[in-house]
Write a structure and sequence with these properties.
With 420 residues, the chain is α/β, with parallel strands linked by helices. Helices cover 43% and strands 14% of the residues. The protein is globular and about 65 Å long.
Amino acid sequence: MASTQHRRHQAPLKVLSIFGTRPEAIKMAPLLNAMEAEQAIDSRICVTGQHQSMLQQMLSVFDIQADYSLDVMTPGQTLNGLTAALYAALDPVLEQTTPDCVLVHGDTTTALVGAMASFHRRIPVGHVEAGLRTADVATPWPEEMNRRCIDQGAEWLFAPTPRARDNLLAERLQGSIYVTGNTGIDALHMTARRLHADTALRQSIDRQFAMIDSSRKLLLVTGHRRENLGDGIIELCQALRTLSQRDDLQIVYAVHLNPAVAVPVRAALGGLPNVHLIEPLDYLAFIRLMQRAHIVLTDSGGVQEEAPALGKPVLVMRDVTERPEAVAAGAVRLVGAAADSIVHGVSELLDVEALWRRSARALSPYGDGHACPRIVDALLARPVDEFTAGDDLVKPLAGRAQRRAPHLAAPSVTLPAHRV
C-alpha cells in the first residue's frame, strides 16, 4: 500500500468505520463528523445493528447516515452465532468498498469481527480506544479477550490515556501507538455545549422527567453487562429495593431492552413509589439526566468516563475495571455486584457529605475533547499533539512507542463503491 503521505496528494484516504452498538455510535459520532469535514478522507460507515433500535436512536441524534446497514441479530442468538453472522455480513462490504483502512471501536463482538475480517483481507485496522485492560481475560467477558485480539493485529492503536498506552507498550505490539484521549469525551463536550446554549432544549428534556422530585437526591442507575446478568441483576434489584426505603432518595433506572435485564428488573422493582423505571434514553436526554444526578450507579464503561467529567460520583458494580484513572483520582469506586456492597456504597455517599464532595470533583482523566482531530492527524500521517492530561493521576511508565507506517496491503481488486 502506498504511504498515507503520498495518498494525501492523490485520492482521499478511504476509511470504513464499522460499529454496531449504542456506546460505539456515541463514541464514533464525533470522529465520523471530523472525518467528514476532512477533504483528504473519504469516510464510509457500516453499522451492524448489534443494538439495532438503540443504535438508530443514536445515529439520529448525531445526524449520521450509514452507507451500509446490516441486521445481524436474531432472537436467542449465541455469541458464536453472532460472530458467524457478522463474518458473513461484513466480508461482502469489505470486498465492495475496498477501503484503505478500517476503524473499529472498543471491545464489542462487532469490533472483533470487523478487525479480524479486515485483517484476513490485509486491510489495515485502526483501533479506537485501544489498550484498556483488566488482569483477567474473563472479566469483563467477552470484552477483555475481544480487545486484546484486536490490538494484536491493529496498525493504529489509539490509546485514550497514558495508562492504556503503557498496557500496549508492555505487550510489545506491532502497531503505532497514539495517546489521543477518549472520543467519548469529545461527544460529551459537544453535547454539554449544546445543552448549555439551548434553554428550550434543556426544558424540553426536563419535561420528560416530570416525575423527579427535586427535594430528593437522585440516584441514576444503568446496568446491562453480560457478566452481571442473572444473579447480578437479582442482587442489584435487591439493593435498589432496600435503598428505595430511604425518604431522602429517589431512583431512576434506565433499563436495557435486553429481556435478560428488562424482565427481572420490572418484575422486582415495578410499582415501587420512588423507583422510576425508564427505557434507554437518547444521548442528549441521558447526559441531561446525569447532570441532575447526585450519584451514578453503573456497570457501563462509557458512564465511568462521562460522569466524572460532569462532577458526579460513580459507583461501579464490578470487581475490576479497565478504566483505573478515575478510581485513582477518587471519582469512581468499585463496589462489586453484591446487594450489601451496593447498599453500603450508596449509603456512604448519601450520609457522609465529605466523602461525596471528594468524589464529586469535576475531572476528566480520559480526554480534553480533542481526541478526534488527533486520530484524523494520525491517519493522514500528520504530526500528532498527544493527550497528556491525567499523567498526574496515574503515573505512566517511561518510554514511547516507535512510529511506523502501516504496512499491510489493501486488496488489489477494485469494485464499484456502494452508497446507501
